[in-house]
Amino acid sequence: MPHRHLDQPGLFDRYTYVEKEQLYEALSALYSDNKRQLFDRLVLHRTRHIAVVLEDIYQSHNASAVLRSCDCFGVQDVHVVESRNEFNPAGDVAVGSSKWVDYYKHPTISDAYCHLHKKGYRIVATLPHENDTMIGDLDLSQPIALVFGTELTGLTQEAIDGADAYVKIPMYGFTESFNISVCAALSLFSTTERMRSDSTIAWQLSEEEQLTLKLYWSLQVIRDGEKVLQQVAANLFK
Q1: Where in the chain are the domains?
Q2: The whole model's pTM is what?
Q3: CATH class of the domain defined by 47-203
């Protein structure tokens, strides 16, 4: 999906739950039953319990690969810090994943951290650190935001100092680090699998969050989706 603006209301914020249901019924009639069934099935696996933060990723194929991994593992929210580098997902690598994942842009890492802390996230920097823990031992009882740094230099000192915890992936070879997209994929696989297997973690979206997300997805498969939404809403809520 196009990146979501943190300081602007969402397209569906003005509607009640019942109105959203009516909108979804009307919009989903404009595409196939198979697509609707797919939305209904996949939304049950979406989560915001785990989020991803990308600090100044400058290679578009890496940014796109991370978005693709987030979609594959059901992680809905990606927060992008653009202090120096603009975030540009490459379509050939993302394979359409940018249509299904929400991403938010922040001017600085401190802005991103402030936003996530207010949302109740524990900030977890992905790098070896004297206070680190292995990815498989990371505490998932609280929502976490996994932070990944730029390709050449990794996380900035500000990003490291502002984190609440540190995590690393075990390595047994000569190479000192994983590619950022590989690191993200491995981290998301480990954390989402453990999250879903823990019955004490309320990781799924609420019913209203699921409905709202399906509405956003609907706009991705309807030509001129936002224009159609305006027309449908005008007819439903005269």
Answers
A1: 15-45+207-238, 47-203
A2: 0.91
A3: alpha beta
